[in-house]
């Protein structure tokens, strides 16, 4: 929910702060989320109260709008600049990512000059007295290291939540191509078997009539 508030603040400032229903819809959207969730209003309402008590969020009241709205204060709480907040936001919303993925996914939130700028921000977030980012070890099959956020959790919780203790289980392009080839061959074999069965039936019919 904090990630959604931080995202909408930059991506759709005209609709920010968010009402309870708008926050629920932001949490439940199917794009730009990993994992995709389906929170009901009760869950969201309970969560915003907890986040307010922890000092991560504020309620916004207005005489012109009867609905209470909500805004995050992550930048104030942790002393984050716009670049750091953008990186943390996409890590919260989309799970572990490479620096290149982070650069591409923060375009609506902050414009980084180059990949080195993203890596510098990641280093700052990981090097704090209380780190907000963890660099994951590069696993076999991975070309680049991935980064995960540590907001509200420690390193052990992050690693425990990853497949095979942090091993990336994403199917690579080469593996996908191999699977496609296998499926294509299986389909071709099935077609040939069908043709053989038809030939056999025709041959049996011919033998019955002329044998």
What are the salient characteristics of this protein?
elongated; 54% helix; three-stranded antiparallel sheet; Arc Repressor Mutant, subunit A; single chain; 9 helices; 10% strand; 211 residues
CATH structural architecture of the largest domain: Orthogonal Bundle
Query: Mean of the pLDDT scores?
Result: 86
What order do the strands of the largest sheet run in, or round the barrel if closed? 1-3-2
The strand count comes to 5
Which regions are unreliable across 5 or more consecutive residues at pLDDT < 50? 164-173
Distance between the termini: 78 Å
Count of the domains: 3
- The percent range for helix content is 40-55%
Radius of gyration (Å): 26 Å
The CATH topology assignment of the largest domain is Arc Repressor Mutant, subunit A
Helix and strand succession? HEHHEEHHHHEEHH
Main sheet characteristics: 3 strands, antiparallel
Give the DSSP E fraction (strand runs of 2 or more residues).
5-15%
CATH class of the largest domain: Mainly Alpha
**Class computed from helices, strands and strand pairing:** mainly alpha
